[in-house]
């Protein structure tokens, strides 16, 4: 019985390794984090504000 358990464990280990290697081969390696930490830390959205035209600018144009 102990020998059977040992064989089943070894078979399941080989099976899981084979499935892992197959999954990596199909989908490719997982993406890694960027080495530039500034991009990760500074991820706030930047918006450019547009000033409204004043009455003075409208009067200057013919």
Question: How would you portray this structure in words?
Answer:
The protein has 62 residues and is mostly helical. It has a domain at 1-28. The protein is built from three helices and no strands. The termini are far apart. The model has no long low-confidence stretch (mean pLDDT 76).
List its traits.
62 residues, mainly alpha, 0% strand, rod-shaped
Summarize the structure.
The protein has a domain of about 30 residues. It contains 3 helices and no strands.
Q: How are the SSEs placed, and which strands pair?
A:
Elements: H1 2-27, H2 37-41, H3 55-60
Given helix and strand content, the structural type is: mainly alpha
Specify the biggest β-sheet. Answer: none
DSSP strand count: 0
Number of helices: 3
Helix content: 55-70%
Q: How large a portion of the residues is in β-strands, by DSSP E? A: under 5%
Contiguous low-pLDDT stretches (5 residues minimum) are none
Distance between the termini: 100 Å
The H/E string reads: HHH
Provide the residue-averaged pLDDT. Answer: 76
Q: Per the principal axes of the C-alpha atoms, what is the gross shape?
A: rod-shaped
Query: What Rg is obtained from the alpha carbons, in whole angstroms?
Result: 31 Å
């Amino acid at each position: 019985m102990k020998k059977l358990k040992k064989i089943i464990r070894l078979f399941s280990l080989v099976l899981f390794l084979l499935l892992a290697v197959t999954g990596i081969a199909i989908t490719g390696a997982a993406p890694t984090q960027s080495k530039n930490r500034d991009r990760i830390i500074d991820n706030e959205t930047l918006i450019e504000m547009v000033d409204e035209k004043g009455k003075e600018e409208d009067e200057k144009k013919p």
